[in-house]
Design goal:
The complex is a heterodimer of chains A (about 290) and B (about 375). Chain A has about 290 residues and is mainly α. Helices cover about 75% and strands about 0% of the residues of chain A. Chain B has helices spanning about 45-55, 75-80, 95-105, 110-125, 140-155, 170-190, 200-205, 225-230, 235-240, 340-345, and strands at about 10-15, 25-30, 35-40, 60-65, 70, 80-85, 160-165, 190-195, 210-215, 215-220, 240-255, 255-260, 265-270, 280-290, 295, 305-320, 320-325, 335-340, 355-360, 365. In chain B, about 25% of the residues lie in helices and about 35% in strands. Classes of the chains: A mainly alpha (about 290), B alpha+beta (about 375).
């Protein structure tokens, strides 16, 4: 046998190694995407019936609609706000856990504490904001009691503010975990070496910790951005129906049996997300950072 | 401009991490300005803790640390004008060689042009010019070590502290980098404090060797003093090159005393000024391994030798310029003779031979 040729046996072993992943990815990821992609090119009779064929009508309709742009702007606003707050909170929580909690057992305990909100369902977590933010809620009551305001603040619940609060509440953990992970791998000696060189706390954060947590920040960003951009439920519940996101539009389309339009919107959103993620991966070489 | 003095004085320095056990226990030491000082001892003896206290990364529980006449306890490393080179270097992995070396200047607010000029001059000094734009991971161990040295030296510290700087290198490189350290120290003209657990490294480099055990200084002095005149059994065994024997004093006669041993007439030891012994005392003595001569039984002893101990050869190791002969001379302790190669092969012994181990009486050294 020639050494340059891969022996058939090794080839088979290689396929066996990837087969579990293929078995999961093909039916649950590749196939649905292909179905959606196909549906986006089909024609419809307007009552849920699909005519196989190839037409760009749905794309033309989606791209021509003024609503699409409005929804994308609204979604991007939620995404950016959520990203900023989760990043700031997530970074400092991770920083505190890694660099200020000396006892490792305590750090792991506090880390687990961050996951406590996830012991209950998403809906319960959102509903639990009502007694806090509502018209008769704790915050309004307190502010009224202190005499800071005369009228209860309406902006607290069923508003864009409430949407962002709910997102930040839900998604900060997705920032904490990857940032914690990349920070925990920073050798403590590097911090000491920086102090020895005369670096202040701020210098250390700016010149050592942030650059070395880049991969964690990028991963967390991908999680947060893709979840917010792909969500409609939180927007629907927390805005009280006052705001919508890209996904709410195609949820409505599905509700009125406009499948090709919904599919075209979904394909468009997927392309936008792929573009955003590749932009993030372009700025941070996650693969290289992780294997470092 | 008068150069800042880098002389160091440790006065009663103690360190305890848990309040019960002392890692450093009452250390007093003076290190002259511009000296090369090596702390040596087994791991856990407190040598690194002392270094970190001088550097300002650890505060002493008690005592004073004085650098250039100023008590520096509580001051930040920058205010002490010390710089530390860390074990395994702690180079910033995301910065290039140039950025690593310029780091201290950057956080001190030097302009970009200034700091890059200074960094490039330092890079040239450690001969890394062609690697200036590489990341630390793309360098060999020896090159990383030079980057670490340059990064520490760029702030023009008055004291440079090195924590086991050579331990990550392989043997050949270690000897080479050892010379480079010494060269840098002469060039910079500042105090170097170097922590190591290798005695060869310590005696090759240091003006002042400090031997430590369990948080205390066992002996501090010039390399030759510590090696040739160890204070006690611990130092003698740790520095190596000595045979340590113990026994009871049989009789004291004028300038020497006799130690009871397996030898027919005991061992005669010159009485040195510092030791006063009386009959019955248990005493340790040291005899340098290269002072021991081996003669076949029945032959005359070399001149000056009054003691001879019958021994059996246990093992022989050829070491190049000498031959290491291990003997069963004393029951519990190792006894080794380093015989010059030519002498050994003029009349070679084999394992199992019976020989007489002897040495010039004057070379035996009573230990404290």
């Amino acid at each position: 046998m020639q050494p340059s040729q891969t022996p058939p046996r090794a080839n088979l072993a290689g396929w066996l190694y990837v087969s579990p992943l293929v078995l999961v990815l093909v039916p649950f990821f590749v196939a649905p995407i292909l179905v959606v992609l196909a549906a986006s090119f089909f024609a419809t009779d307007g009552f849920g019936g699909l005519t196989p064929g190839f037409t760009l009508a749905s794309y033309v309709e989606v791209l021509h609609s003024a609503l699409t742009l409005k929804l994308y702007l609204a979604t991007i606003k939620f995404t950016v706000l959520t990203w900023i707050f989760t990043l700031i909170i997530g970074f400092f929580v991770a920083y505190f856990l890694v660099f200020h909690v000396r006892n490792q057992l305590l750090a792991i305990g506090l880390f687990l504490l961050c996951t406590v909100p996830f012991w209950t369902s998403n809906i319960i977590r959102m509903i639990s904001w009502i007694p806090l933010l509502g018209k008769e809620g704790l915050i309004n009551q307190a502010l009224l009691g202190l005499g800071v305001i005369r009228q209860p603040l309406e902006v607290l619940l069923f508003s864009d503010l409430a949407v962002v609060i709910a997102y930040v509440h839900q998604l900060t953990i997705f920032m904490i975990v990857p940032i914690f992970n990349s920070m925990a791998r920073i050798d403590k000696k590097l911090i000491e070496a920086a102090i020895d060189a005369g670096a202040s706390r701020f210098d250390i954060m700016r010149l050592i910790v942030v650059p070395m947590s880049k991969s964690g920040i990028a991963l967390g960003t991908i999680f947060v951005v893709s979840i917010v951009m792909g969500d409609f439920f939180v927007v629907k519940v927390m805005s009280g129906g006052g705001s919508a996101s890209v996904v709410s539009a195609f949820y409505e389309d599905v509700g009125v049996l406009q499948y090709p339009n919904a599919a075209a919107s979904a394909v468009l959103l997927t392309l936008v997300l792929v573009a955003i993620v590749s932009l993030i991966l372009r700025t941070v070489d996650i693969r290289q950072e992780i294997t470092r | 401009m008068k150069k800042d003095r880098g002389d160091i004085e440790l006065a009663g320095v103690c360190k305890s991490f848990d309040g019960a056990t002392y890692v450093v226990d009452g250390v007093n030491l003076k290190i002259a300005d511009g000296a090369y000082c090596c702390f040596i001892g087994p791991s856990g003896c407190g040598k690194t803790t002392i270094l970190r206290m001088i550097a300002g990364h650890e505060d002493p529980t008690a005592g004073e640390i004085v650098i250039g006449g100023q008590n520096v306890v509580g001051l930040a490393p920058v205010q002490r004008r010390t710089a530390m080179m860390f074990q395994s270097y702690a180079l910033f992995p995301h910065l290039t060689v140039r950025e690593n070396i310029a780091f201290a200047l950057r956080v001190r607010g030097k302009s970009k042009a200034d700091r890059l000029r200074a960094a490039d001059a330092m890079i040239e000094k450690v001969r890394l010019t062609q690697f200036a734009d590489r990341l630390p991971a793309q360098l060999s161990g020896g090159q990383q070590q030079r980057v670490a040295l340059a990064r520490a030296a760029i702030t023009e510290p008055r004291v440079l502290l090195l924590d086991e700087p050579l331990s990550a290198l392989d043997e050949q490189l270690r000897v080479q980098m050892r010379q480079e350290l010494r060269r840098m120290q002469r060039e910079l003209g500042i105090t170097f404090i170097h922590v190591t657990h290798t005695q060869l490294e310590a005696i090759a480099l240091a003006d002042l060797v400090v031997v430590m055990e369990q948080g205390k200084i066992k002996q501090a002095g010039a390399a030759r003093d510590v090696y040739a005149h160890p204070h006690d059994r611990y130092v003698a065994e740790f520095m190596g090159g000595q045979n340590v024997l113990s026994g009871r004093v049989e009789k004291v006669n004028g300038a020497s005393f006799t130690l009871a041993q397996a030898a027919p007439d005991g061992i005669e030891v010159p009485l040195q000024a510092r030791s006063t012994v009386s009959v019955g005392d248990k005493v340790d003595i040291a005899v340098r391994r290269d002072d021991v001569a081996l003669v076949r039984p029945g032959k005359d002893l070399p001149p000056g030798c009054t003691t001879s101990l019958p021994s059996r050869v246990l093992a022989i190791e050829y070491q190049g310029y000498f031959v290491k002969v291990m003997l069963d001379t004393v029951p519990d302790d190792e006894f080794v003779a380093y015989v010059p190669e030519k002498t050994f092969f003029a009349d070679p012994f084999t394992v199992g031979d019976v020989v007489m181990a002897t040495w010039a009486t004057g070379s035996a050294l009573p230990l404290a």
